[in-house]
């Protein structure tokens, strides 16, 4: 082992790659960054400040600087760019080397790449990284999956740079194959759901009681001191106070209402459909982002049908309190939907996920970090085999205590005409999940009537078909 050589090399010196390298160098590791863009390499070296950090603009310079077995991490856009980098690297890599994809790759692509590289003796890790620019520099949450022996080689590096909560690093080996990127996909889907719930809460405060930006900042700031304490609530409070440098207004009011997305939410919805796990809050969050893009059509329909909300006539204080309870209950349901999908995927794909570990590493560094994750972790410590958080006595009780708030908020949103689809579908999901009997018996009868699909009975085992009177 050549101590003079670098412990890890990074391909891609954008915001995430550059800051992760600086983080590693801060923790005493010798690292090297590669990018074809000389300006990005120069910027990295300028920022290195005497740390053990090198830069390269060619692979022939980059690869020899690494110690054996060589560990190379990629932080490039998902899809074709990852395959292109792998293709460029292959002539330089040897059996036993480790290649890490730290981007938001689709888990099926990770499986394909892992299999192809395994045939060449090269270890491939798919590792989700969450935390944005600040997290990469000061401590992200990381979700690695792939060959256990490969992770063991790089584990000290990543544990040292990860966010820490109660002295525990927010990283854990999650399992074989594509487990890491699958967990990151679910993380991002939960993020979609939480952001939509918060946006709807904001809309009800703004449209229902005409809350000013200062009042909104105060409300979300107060909420962040209690059970709703989380990164997303924290930054929401800050956003409402941010002034626009081009006008005398608040910046949030100058931002167009068409939300972007990179596809990970859609991937989760498609995967949940395939595994037959209901995640309606996340599904509707994806749908509303899609709907937000139809700006011209929305304006036309508003002109034709009317789009203004009716004023809320009740108590401001009561609505704020109900929104707090409703949002907390819906957040529990959203995390629960994601965890339920992970539970099923772990069985189907043989990941052997420990959901307690997933909750633990999401407590810090990542975008969906929240006080609530301590309770979720504790729930899985007590009941590791649970497939839905609603079966947890503590979390189930917390949701039960707030059903009235959620139902009241949904009713108010419907009455005053403020769209709240994620809150509404969260309530519907909860009501359906706690129903001893759903009306799907009628659906089964309909299917048998028109398609002879058979049905099951409540009083006998087996499948049955009826020759329905179709006259």
Name the features.
20 helices; Single alpha-helices involved in coiled-coils or other helix-helix interfaces; Rossmann fold; N-(1-d-carboxylethyl)-l-norvaline Dehydrogenase, domain 2; two-stranded antiparallel sheet; 471 residues; alpha/beta; single chain; 54% helix; seven-stranded mixed sheet
CATH classification, class level of the largest domain: Mainly Alpha
Low-pLDDT stretches are none
Termini, distance in Å?
83 Å
> Helicity range of the residues?
40-55%
What is the CATH T-level topology of the largest domain?
Answer: N-(1-d-carboxylethyl)-l-norvaline Dehydrogenase, domain 2
* Secondary structure tally, helices: 20
Q: What is the residue-averaged pLDDT?
A: 94
Classify the secondary structure makeup into a structural class.
alpha/beta
Radius of gyration: 25 Å
Q: How are the strands of the largest sheet arranged?
A: 3-2-1-4-5-6-7
């Amino acid at each position: 082992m050549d101590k003079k050589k670098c412990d890890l090399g990074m391909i891609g010196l954008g915001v995430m790659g550059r800051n992760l390298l600086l983080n590693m160098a801060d923790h005493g590791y010798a690292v090297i960054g590669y990018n074809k863009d000389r300006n990005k390499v120069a910027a990295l070296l300028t920022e290195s400040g005497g740390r053990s950090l090198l830069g390269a603009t060619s692979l022939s310079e980059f690869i020899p600087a690494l110690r054996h077995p060589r560990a190379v991490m990629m932080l490039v856009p998902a899809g074709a760019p990852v395959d292109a980098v792998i293709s460029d690297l292959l002539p330089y890599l040897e059996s036993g080397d480790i290649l890490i994809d730290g981007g938001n790759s689709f888990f099926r692509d990770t499986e394909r790449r892992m299999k192809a590289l395994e045939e060449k003796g090269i270890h491939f890790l798919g590792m989700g990284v969450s935390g944005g620019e600040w997290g990469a520099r000061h401590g992200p949450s990381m979700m690695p999956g792939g060959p256990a022996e490969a992770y063991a080689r790089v584990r000290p590096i990543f544990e040292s740079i990860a966010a820490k909560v109660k002295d525990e690093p927010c990283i854990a080996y999650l399992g074989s194959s594509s487990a890491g990127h699958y967990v990151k996909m679910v993380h991002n889907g939960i993020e979609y759901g939480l952001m939509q719930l918060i946006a709807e809460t904001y809309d009800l405060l703004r449209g229902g009681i005409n809350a000013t930006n200062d009042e909104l900042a105060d409300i979300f700031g107060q909420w962040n001191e209690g059970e709703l304490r989380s990164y997303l609530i924290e930054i929401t409070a800050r956003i409402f106070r941010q002034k626009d440098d081009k006008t005398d207004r608040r910046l949030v009011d100058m931002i167009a209402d068409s939300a972007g997305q990179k596809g990970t939410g859609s991937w989760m919805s498609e995967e949940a459909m395939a595994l037959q796990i209901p995640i309606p809050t996340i599904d509707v969050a994806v749908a509303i982002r899609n709907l937000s893009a139809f700006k011209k059509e929305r304006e036309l329909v508003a002109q034709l049908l009317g789009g203004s909300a009716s004023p809320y006539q009740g108590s401001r204080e009561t609505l704020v309190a109900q929104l707090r309870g409703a949002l907390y209950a819906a957040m529990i349901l959203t995390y629960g939907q994601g965890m339920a999908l992970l539970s099923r995927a772990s069985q189907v794909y043989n990941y052997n996920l420990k959901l307690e570990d997933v909750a633990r590493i999401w407590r810090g560094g990542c975008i969906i970090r929240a006080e609530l994750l301590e309770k979720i972790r504790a729930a899985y410590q007590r009941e590791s085999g649970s497939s839905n958080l609603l079966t947890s006595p503590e979390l189930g009780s917390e949701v039960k205590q707030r059903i009235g708030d959620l139902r009241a908020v949904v009713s108010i949103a419907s009455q005053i005409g403020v769209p709240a689809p994620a809150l509404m579908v969260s309530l519907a999901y909860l009501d359906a999940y706690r129903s001893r009997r759903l009306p799907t018996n009628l659906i089964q009868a309909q299917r048998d009537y028109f398609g002879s699909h058979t049905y099951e009975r409540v009083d006998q085992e087996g499948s049955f078909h009826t020759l329905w009177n179709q006259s």
